[in-house]
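Contributing new records

If you add data, match the layout below exactly. Sequence lines come first and carry their own label; structure lines follow with theirs. Keep one chain per record. Anything else will be rejected by the validation script.
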Amino acid sequence: MAKIKITQVKSKIGSTERQKKTLEALGLNKINATVEHEATPQIKGMVAKVQHLVSVEE
């Protein structure tokens, strides 16, 4: 399965509690933090919910 690299580019201040928990579940806790995950439908769905806070590279 393909890997995707997710980087947090905006602060989670002002986001809903659900979006904050989604970022934590992805493993992101600071701006410019980067994590690598498998490109599963679950991970892609999580990224879609916080797409305004992160950037994604395939």
